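Quick one: structure for this chain?
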Amino acid sequence: MKKPKKRLLFVCYGNICRSPMAEAIARQRLGPAAEVASAGIGATGGPATEEAALVMKLVYKIDISSHIARPVGTYDLGSFDYVIALDPSIYHHLRDIWGIPESILYGWDIEDPLGSDYQVYKETALKIERRLGQFLAAVGLDA
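Got it. Here's what it folds into:
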């Protein structure tokens, strides 16, 4: 019997910088073994930032140009195995406002690069990639 795919949700504030990059990197790393999505607690639609799209294209060979920011309420949050908050304030918001149980909620410490240059976005993506590797190993999803 086939195991159901693990579902991961990456959450930042606007879903235009960090979480779309995390979603793309995780999707590339995990392939069809998992379902990966992203959202923002303050997302209002719109594309990923130009810098995020450029880093994904140049460093990871991933096209996120069609990404549209999604509010966290778009999803059935209880359907995810792992909800990853990309900074402590997002973690607290998801726990306290959205009631996500700490058994599936994970907090990272990735600074928001919004308004920064390409190099800062690239450093942010590399931090996300490193943190993702640690996370996947810790929860036993590393292939």
